[in-house]
């Protein structure tokens, strides 16, 4: 199994990935469309802008989750923290 396949499998098992990348942006998009449809005309450009914002939220959420997981699982991070922190690990 290649390294990319292993990493992809690891990311897809992560519950936070689905929460911050798929569920939260999807719920936010539907909520914003519902709110905007009551006050503003829901034109195609406005819906497209909301969709792009939801997609960017998903990308940022995925980046944060992946980055934090890699930092926490990295042994060197703990070694670095033990050298620069006032607290002992």
Automatic annotation (TrEMBL):
This is ABC transporter permease. It comes from Limosilactobacillus reuteri (strain ATCC 55730 / SD2112) (Lactobacillus reuteri). The chain crosses the membrane at residues 17-36, 48-67. Keywords: Membrane, Transmembrane, Transmembrane helix.
């Amino acid at each position: 199994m290649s390294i990319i396949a292993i990493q992809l499998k690891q990311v897809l098992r992560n519950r936070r990935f689905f929460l911050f990348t798929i569920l939260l942006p999807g719920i936010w998009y539907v909520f914003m469309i519902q709110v905007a449809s009551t006050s503003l005309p829901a034109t195609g450009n406005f819906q497209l802008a909301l969709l792009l914002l939801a997609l960017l939220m998903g990308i940022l959420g995925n980046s944060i989750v992946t980055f934090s997981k890699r930092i926490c699982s990295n042994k060197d991070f703990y070694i670095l923290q033990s050298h620069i922190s006032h607290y002992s690990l």
